[in-house]
């Protein structure tokens, strides 16, 4: 499942063997992200999708500044979900024209920062639209806005649904015409629509269906828009495989469908840029989490590797970030990749809670204190999505190699 190569039993990150990388980083635990794998993923995606589709990176998935800087040079824009992420995106060198800001509870201070920066705001309520009119008047700079639509359908088989039914995200499709009228009378600079149906989807047919329905909904809503549609963000939701039995997302049908949508948009929404926004799919497979075995314990015949890192740095691998049934992320002993993996082993962290579980009865090679445990598929929703202060252990370091 892993995209990382190994030589002499050691995983390589950006060509650097893992033991040497750990020495270079100066501590475990750490996250390491591989620039070449990040670049290769964007290239692969560009080849699979029509040239007309603009690719945005959703900073939420991994906001490490150096990584965002690398991504900013590869994609057409960055999507942010807070003023903090906005600052990261601007520091990364992304042109404000290519930045968009979504999020259900944008505070007035955040809205002001975004208007002053000149980025596109995805409006998610009537209150936000009115606040933006006041801010625009005060700054003397019109807010650029799109409407985030809570669609009247769901993204089937998505790991996390974020559209359809009652949701705190966006404005219900049936209320959008009224919001568009208000945006027109408030004098905001209206640019288009944003639809995001959900996350972590491995079924191409479901993504195709959601993108098709999103496009049709946007076409209908465009009739009520106060200005021509210049941007249509169709969301994303592309998943990556984490668990045994999961297979890679097939990009071919998605690319074919987006080509049809692009052709229909050329006549139905002339001049509109089509955007998809991806987080996890762009960065998730290019990252590793590395911690060191502190102790090896045998309790009533069962082997435990106790490590210096775990849940507090990598909540999702512990199974506590939106998983219904806990499953093991792909885990290896990163300096013993060529040893046979035949000892049923539980890998745990140092926290005094049974939730701090990295691998539950997984077949692994014989390991000793000092060995390096690696969790693959860790480039998204890792360090920034974990309760690093819990129990007062040191924070994980992040490096881009
Ligand atoms: C979280 C989020 C994303 C990124 O989702 P991934 O599953 O990481 O691709 C994109 N857009 C919006 C609006 C989001 O909330």
**Strand tally:** 22
Using the coordinates shown, work out and report the CATH topology of the largest domain: TIM Barrel
Compute the CA-based radius of gyration: 22 Å
Helical residue percent band: 25-40%
Q: In percent terms, what proportion of residues is strand? A: 25-35%
Quick one: CATH class of the largest domain?
Alpha Beta
The computed structural class is: alpha/beta
Q: What separation lies between the terminal Cα atoms?
A: 20 Å
CATH homologous superfamily assignment of the largest domain: Alanine racemase
Largest sheet: 8 strands, mixed
User: What would you call the shape?
Assistant: elongated
Ligand inventory: pyridoxal-5'-phosphate
Parts with pLDDT < 50 across at least 5 consecutive residues: none
Number of domains: 2
Count of alpha/pi helices = 10
CATH architecture group name of the largest domain: Alpha-Beta Barrel
3D architecture notes:
With 401 residues, the protein is α/β, with parallel strands linked by helices. The chain has two domains: 6-32 and 286-400, Lyase, Ornithine Decarboxylase, Chain A, domain 1; 63-278, TIM Barrel, CATH 3.20.20.10. 29% of the residues lie in helices and 25% in strands. It has helices spanning 18-25, 35-48, 65-72, 83-91, 108-117, 126-139, 176-186, 204-222, 251-268, 280-283, and strands at residues 6-7, 10-13, 16-17, 30-33, 53-58, 77-80, 99-101, 120-123, 144-150, 160-161, 171-172, 189-194, 198-199, 231-233, 273-278, 287-299, 302-307, 331-333, 343-348, 357-364, 372-375, 397-400. The strands form four sheets. Strands 4, 16, 17, 18, 19, 20, 21 and 22 form an eight-stranded mixed sheet that branches. Strands 5-6-7-8-9-12-14-15 form an eight-stranded parallel beta barrel, surrounded by seven helices. Strand 14, helix 9 (251-268) and strand 15 (273-278) form a beta-alpha-beta unit. Helix 5 packs across helix 6, helix 6 packs parallel to helix 7 (176-186) and helix 8 (204-222) packs parallel to helix 9 (251-268). The radius of gyration is 22 Å and the shape is elongated. The chain starts with 5 loop residues before the first strand and ends with a strand. The model has no long low-confidence stretch (mean pLDDT 96). The structure holds pyridoxal-5'-phosphate. Pyridoxal-5'-phosphate binds at residues 58, 60-61, 79, 81, 102, 196, 199-200, 236-237, 277-281, 380. Pfam families: Orn_Arg_deC_N, Orn_DAP_Arg_deC. It comes from Aromatoleum bremense. Residues 30-379 form the Orn/DAP/Arg decarboxylase 2 C-terminal domain.
